[in-house]
Design a protein that fits this description.
This protein is mainly α and 157 residues long. The chain contains two helices and no strands.
Amino acid sequence: MAKFKFQLESVEKVRKMKEQKMLEALSESQRAYLEKIELKRGLLAKKQAAFEGKDSLSGSAAPVNEIRLYEDFIEGLKVRIQRADQAIIRARRFLDQAMRHYIQARKDRMMIDRLREKAYEEFRLAQARLEQKRLDDLITMRARMERVPAGGEEESA
C-alpha cells in the first residue's frame, strides 16, 4: 500500500510555527499585563501605607515638614498610579491584539488540518478502489485460468 503524502505539508508546517509564535506572543502579553497590574497594586499599597503614616503623625506633635513630606510622597504616588493605569490600558490593548493574532493563526492552521483530513480520506478511497480493482483483476485471471484445460488444449464442443 502506498504511503500518504500531503501536498500542503510545507504550508502546514509554516502555519504550525506561526501559531506557536503567536501563542508565545500572547503569553508574553499576558505576562506584561499581569506585571502592570501588580505594579499598580504595589503602588496602591504604598499609598495606603503613606496615608496611615501621615494619619499617625497628624495625631501627635509631629513637625510640619514630615507631614508635608508624606503629602508630597502621596501626590507622587497618585501620579505614578495614573501612569500605571495608562500602562495597564496599553498592555490590555497589546493583549487583545495578541489574542486576535493567535486566534487567526489557529483558524489558519485548523483550515490546513481540515484539508489534510479531506486529502487523507480521498487517498484512502483511492487506495480502496485500487485494491478492489486488483482483486477484480485477480478473480478475472483465475476464472480464465480455470476455463483452460490442464493439457493446454481447448475443449471442443
